[in-house]
Design brief:
The protein is of the alpha/beta class. The chain contains eleven helices and 18 strands. The relative contact order is 0.16. It binds nicotinamide-adenine-dinucleotide and zinc ion (2 copies).
């Protein structure tokens, strides 16, 4: 029987989000209904609301979630009712050209549920990133459910579903940070601070956090930054050089995604170092710089989608590291809120007061 539950939707471009009744179909083949326990508020939810992703309104928002499998459809063997799972937006297909080349982190055909969740009048909803978890329950593809240790706090584990994994993976997977490396992270919101935590986990010995906001720098220091640089009064490139023997850092991560921060990342790295762009630029932004500088510095200029993660590989391991006290993911949960507080959380996010607000269901 289809179920009626509460969900947070964005009905039209820029309009305030609404808490409404939505209809969740029974899971079809390959599908799973998950009872959501917690879901973080990410910038991308706001971008959906503002029409910055596409025009397929109404959206069912929310995509950084953990919960319990309630029911599974035909053929689902990877999870069963009662399993504690983190939801992901990279259920790799195993068949596309990226998967076949052994690079499933670039999978071009990731799985989502085939049936639609709807409003009570039958209007089809577009779930944010194929998840839609600002809701009591959601319908996803079984591949979007990654089992992790149920001892983890859902508010904490769910954050691996997007921003924290993106930042952590930008350091560990894309940047391949190793023991003894020097790393600089520009922009220390949830994503940048996760890159800081990832760099520490990977054994970086110098971790330089750059932000314009002292509160963010204080959080970065708690998560493992060995040095902080306030970009509102200090030139980050000179400061990073000064902290790395005049050479620059081995890996510099831009977690803002603007031409000026990317250029800082480019010039703040050592010769043959790596730049990782994990912040998402808006379509209007342009880069203009001497091509010779690129040639003469060598190294690698990379971008990182979802931290190049593979949920099945990365989520359980990171949850285990967290439960062992080796990865303080709980520090990313700044506040716990209700399902009717999402609009307010967008404002809190904008004013930079939180790493993450997490909706508890
Ligand atoms: N690549 C991915 O898969 C992925 C996934 C999730 C989010 N993101 C992106 O990562 C970026 C960061 O997300 P977030 O949640 O951490 O955002 P956030 O707004 O919480 O953090 C951004 C931080 O950058 C700082 N900042 C802004 N301009 C700066 C400058 N010129 N110099 C130094 N610091 C500056 C801000 O003070 C803030 O602390 C966003 O663009 C987001 O869309 C990417
Ligand atoms: Zn694929
Ligand atoms: Zn997100």
């Amino acid at each position: 029987m289809p179920q009626q539950v509460r969900g947070v939707i964005a009905r039209s471009k820029g309009a305030m989000v609404e808490l409404v009744d939505i209809v969740i179909p029974d899971p079809g083949p390959g599908e799973v209904v998950v009872a959501v326990a917690a879901c973080g508020v990410c910038h991308t939810d706001l971008t959906y609301r503002d029409g910055g992703i596409n025009d397929e309104f109404p959206f069912l928002l929310g995509h950084e979630a953990a919960g319990t499998v309630e029911s599974v459809g035909e053929g689902v063997e990877s999870v069963k009712p009662g399993d504690f799972v983190v939801l992901n937006w990279r259920a790799v297909c195993g068949r596309c050209r990226a998967c076949k080349r052994g690079l499933p982190q670039y999978c071009f055909d990731t799985f989502n549920a085939s049936q639609k969740m709807t409003l009570t009048d039958g209007t089809e909803l577009t779930p944010a990133l194929g998840i839609g978890a600002f809701a009591d329950k959601t319908l996803v593809h079984s591949g979007q459910c990654t089992k992790v240790d149920p001892a983890a706090d859902p508010a904490v584990a769910g954050l691996l579903g997007c921003g924290v994994m993106a930042g952590l993976g930008a350091a560990v997977n894309t940047g391949a940070v190793g023991r003894g490396d020097s790393v600089a992270v520009i922009g220390c919101g949830g994503v940048g601070d996760a890159a800081v935590a990832g760099a520490r986990l990977a054994g970086a010995s110098t971790i330089i956090a750059v932000d314009r906001d002292e509160k963010k720098l204080a959080w970065a220091a708690e998560l493992g930054a060995t040095h902080t640089v306030n970009a509102s009064d200090t030139d980050p490139v000179a400061a990073i050089a000064g902290l790395t023997g005049g050479f620059g850092a081995d890996v510099v991560i831009d977690a803002v995604g603007r031409p000026e921060t990317w250029k800082q990342a480019f010039y703040a790295r050592d010769l043959a170092g790596t730049v990782v762009l994990v912040g998402v630029p808006t379509p209007d932004l342009r880069l203009d710089m001497p091509l010779l500088d690129f040639f003469s510095r060598g190294g690698a200029l990379k971008s990182s989608w979802y931290g190049d993660c593979l949920p099945e590989r990365d989520f359980p391991a990171l949850v285990d590291l967290h439960l062992q006290g080796r990865l303080p993911l709980e520090k990313f949960v700044t506040e716990r809120i209700g399902l009717d507080d999402v609009e307010k959380a967008f404002h809190t996010m904008h004013s930079g007061e939180v790493l993450r607000s997490v909706v508890i269901l």
